């Protein structure tokens, strides 16, 4: 077989070809797909940018393609995986050669995009818009078309000013702009006066920043300490586009803007991006990124179950997934939300997926929380699958110890959580944990705050297979009281609480709850009433030191923004060391009695290239910025700027928002940009959430994320941050 070269791959994709789209064994449709010049893949009912593609999987690597494996060979099949929560696209080519053209071609385009610097990415973004406006594909647009395009890009400009800039950019005097001329026109139109003012404040000659000028800026404004002189030279080498300026250790305004919009100039402290925390403390000392009913793609009643949901959660750094096991036909256990219309998937497929993806995003231990509803016979099958498929990854050693092992000690290990026998001689029955949402709905089960007077703990009886029990590391136990737990609980015992029960304990016995969580793992899950897969706010649970705060990962919104914000730090490992105040057993944490505090000033300056919320050519957003503080009750607050009429392009707010933070270790800051609407609810434009302790002070860009948590480059807001200590 002759292999297509990289160039031939792209040419074949641009020419287009028929591919079979597969949704299931019975749903297969032929569609014509082609690659456009603007790096969009399109068909009659479909359009996606290469920048939205996260991965290309070759072969039968999806449920839909596995279902047609007997009909189409693996070397003709491939799957496009998209960023965020967008569903995958499963395709079958007419030949192996055509499949390879798409797999290799898309891979090459993705690699090219990964390697672009910020300046090239911006040029590419502008060029993509130009291609959309160039309807007759002659590589030129006139002023009327340029105005229409700017409206599409969320720009409402002064026509006279835009016209004079258009003429300046029209070097050929043809009254039209070519691609690169339009890029120059756009850059002139979007000149950042607020950045130029700051640049000139520190420039000795008003034209450039010397190494000393830049050092002064880094020290005075960005609050960098020792090493700022050397850092200034590194920034010049990294971001200055002019070779001459670079050789003379100078930075132009273009280089200064490139630094400010780079990851180094962002609000997120790069020192906290990689693994920086001590990973050798007991598991109970860490927040653990956790998913609820991981198998579900949509709601809790009738939506699909899929192994893809496990892949998505694990790729996001999730370190605790849930598997609800029920008896299936032909002796095969299945996973689904019992007593509902959600679809069923085979347990062995779930375990295989977990084995394949467990440690792709993080090497730290993965907890698999088992809700076991199977017969003894099918539990034996479960045990065999866990043992055979997970192999050496499965941790079965539950040696007695006074405390849980550390994430470091458990690297690349999978821990099963579920019902377990107390000892070898125990009757074949096991304790049923509180985690079954059916139990939560049973209002006849009173919550007792004290253990039974006879000292014996009553058990709900359910048959349990010894082979499965032997594989369990974290034993699910019913919670009786904090006193009972303090005197009797073993380190590997874990209780699960519904959100309402956890909230009740935090209000009635907060200090006891915090103390409990210094020793034991606690899992919190959403109320069974949340049939739409909505989420509760995880912050209240984190404040109590609860480690496994399980959320519906498939549901975008503020709650998942907070989860993503917390777990973005520490190398996206899925483990965050709890603040010392929540790990000390001898000194109980009381958030209401902190006498030190941190005044926090956000001077919200401007926004850049905000996306449209309605794809109508004439529609332009009226953006406002809201800053929300989440943390202990004393710190919770929100403030917002005024809205700016008709400007999603370069709105200027120049407003100060002021907060007081008493417990910075537990505070998360969420920036939300919305389109103001006086008649109805504001529309969401973008957001960014960051732990307070990961904020870099000074002049910073906040790079906005979509509702799905994916980048909407180059959209950002420009802020000046001051944090002082009292």
Automatic annotation (TrEMBL):
Ca(2+) 5 binds at residues 675-677. GO terms for cellular component: endoplasmic reticulum; nucleus; plasma membrane. Substrate binds at residues 417, 419, 496, 523. It catalyses: a 1,2-diacyl-sn-glycero-3-phospho-(1D-myo-inositol-4,5-bisphosphate) + H2O = 1D-myo-inositol 1,4,5-trisphosphate + a 1,2-diacyl-sn-glycerol + H(+); a 1,2-diacyl-sn-glycero-3-phospho-(1D-myo-inositol) + H2O = 1D-myo-inositol 1-phosphate + a 1,2-diacyl-sn-glycerol + H(+). Its cofactor is Ca(2+). Glycans are attached at residue 172. Residues 121-156, 157-192 form the EF-hand domain. Residues 421-458 are annotated as: Disordered. SUPFAM superfamilies: C2 domain (Calcium/lipid-binding domain, CaLB) (SSF49562), EF-hand (SSF47473), PH domain-like (SSF50729), PLC-like phosphodiesterases (SSF51695). GO terms for biological process: intracellular signal transduction; lipid catabolic process. Pfam families: C2 (PF00168), EF-hand_like (PF09279), PI-PLC-X (PF00388), PI-PLC-Y (PF00387). It is found in: Cytoplasm; Endoplasmic reticulum; Membrane; Nucleus. Residues 471-582 form the PI-PLC Y-box domain. Residues 47-111 form the PH domain. It comes from the Eukaryota. Transmembrane segments: none annotated. Ca(2+) 4 binds at residues 620, 622, 646. Ca(2+) 3 binds at residues 293, 322, 324, 371. The active site is at 292, 337. Residues 583-706 form the C2 domain. The keyword rRNA-binding does not apply. Keywords: Calcium, Cytoplasm, Endoplasmic reticulum, Glycoprotein, Hydrolase, Lipid degradation, Lipid metabolism, Membrane, Metal-binding, Nucleus, Repeat, Transducer. SMART domains: C2, EFh, PH, PLCXc, PLCYc. It is a peripheral membrane protein. This is Phosphoinositide phospholipase C.
């Amino acid at each position: 077989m002759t292999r297509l070269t990289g160039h031939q791959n792209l040419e074949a994709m641009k020419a287009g070809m028929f591919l079979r789209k597969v949704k299931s064994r019975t749903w297969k449709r032929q569609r014509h797909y082609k690659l456009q010049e603007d790096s969009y893949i399109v068909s009659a009912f479909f359009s996606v940018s290469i920048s939205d593609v996260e991965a290309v999987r070759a072969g039968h690597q999806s449920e839909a393609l596995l279902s047609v494996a007997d009909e189409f060979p693996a070397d003709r099949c491939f799957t496009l995986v998209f960023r965020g929560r967008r569903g995958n696209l499963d395709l079958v080519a007419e030949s192996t050669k055509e499949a390879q053209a798409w797999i290799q071609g898309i891979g090459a385009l993705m690699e090219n995009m990964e390697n672009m610097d910020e300046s090239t990415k911006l040029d590419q973004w502008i060029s993509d818009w130009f291609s959309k406006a160039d309807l007759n594909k002659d590589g030129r647009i006139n002023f009327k078309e340029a105005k229409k395009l700017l409206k599409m890009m969320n720009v409402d400009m002064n026509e006279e000013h835009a016209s004079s800039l258009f003429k300046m950019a029209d070097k050929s005097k043809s009254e039209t702009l070519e691609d690169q001329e339009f890029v120059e026109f756009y850059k002139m139109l979007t000149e950042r006066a607020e950045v130029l003012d700051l640049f000139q404040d520190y420039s000795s000659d008003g034209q450039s920043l010397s190494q000393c000028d830049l050092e002064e800026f880094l020290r005075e404004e960005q609050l960098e300490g020792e090493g700022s002189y050397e850092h200034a030279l590194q920034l010049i080498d990294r971001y200055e586009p002019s070779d001459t300026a670079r050789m003379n250790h100078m930075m132009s305004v273009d280089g200064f803007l490139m630094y400010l919009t780079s990851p180094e100039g962002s609000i997120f402290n790069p020192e906290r991006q990689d693994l920086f925390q001590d990973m050798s403390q007991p598991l109970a000392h860490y927040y653990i990124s956790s998913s609820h009913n991981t198998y579900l793609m949509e709601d809790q009643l009738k939506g699909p179950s899929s192994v893809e949901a496990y892949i998505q959660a694990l790729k996001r750094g999730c370190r605790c997934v849930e598997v609800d096991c029920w008896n299936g036909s032909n002796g095969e256990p299945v996973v689904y939300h019992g007593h509902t219309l959600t679809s069923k998937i085979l347990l062995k497929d779930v375990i295989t997926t977990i084995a394949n993806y467990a440690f792709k995003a993080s090497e730290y231990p993965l907890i698999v929380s088992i809700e076991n509803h199977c017969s003894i016979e099918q539990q034996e099958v479960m045990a065999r699958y866990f043992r055979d498929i997970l192999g050496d990854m499965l941790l079965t050693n539950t040696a007695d110890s006074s405390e849980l092992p550390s994430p470091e000690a458990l690297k690349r290990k999978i821990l099963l959580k579920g019902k377990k026998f107390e000892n070898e001689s125990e009757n074949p029955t096991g304790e049923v944990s509180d985690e079954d949402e059916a139990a939560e709905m049973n209002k006849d089960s009173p919550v007792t705050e004290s253990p039974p007077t006879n000292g014996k703990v009553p058990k709900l009886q359910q048959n349990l297979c010894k082979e499965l029990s032997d594989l369990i590391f974290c034993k699910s136990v019913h919670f009786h009281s904090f006193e009972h737990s303090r005197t009797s609980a073993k380190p590997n015992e874990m209780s699960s609480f519904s959100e309402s029960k956890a909230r009740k304990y935090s209000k009635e016995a907060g200090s006891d709850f915090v103390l409990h969580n210094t020793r034991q793992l606690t899992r919190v899950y959403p109320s069974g009433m949340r049939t739409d897969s909505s989420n509760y706010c995880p912050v209240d649970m984190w404040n109590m030191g609860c480690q496994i705060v399980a959320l519906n990962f498939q549901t975008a919104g503020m709650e998942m923004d907070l989860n993503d914000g917390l777990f973005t730090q520490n190398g996206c490992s899925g483990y965050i060391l709890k603040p010392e105040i929540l790990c000390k057993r001898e000194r109980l944490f009381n958030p209401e009695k902190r006498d030190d505090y941190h005044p926090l000033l956000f001077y919200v300056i401007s926004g850049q290239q905000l996306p449209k919320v309605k794809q109508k050519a004439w529609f332009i957003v009226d953006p406002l910025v809201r800053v929300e503080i989440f943390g202990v009750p004393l710190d919770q607050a929100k403030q917002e700027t005024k809205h700016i009429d008709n400007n999603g392009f370069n709105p200027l707010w120049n407003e100060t928002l002021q907060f007081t933070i008493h417990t910075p270790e537990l505070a998360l800051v969420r920036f939300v940009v919305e389109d103001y609407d006086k008649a109805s609810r504001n529309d969401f434009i973008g957001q960014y959430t960051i732990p307070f302790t990961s904020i870099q002070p000074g002049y910073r860009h906040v790079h906005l994320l979509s509702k799905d948590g994916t980048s909407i480059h180059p959209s950002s807001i420009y802020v000046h941050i001051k944090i002082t200590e009292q």
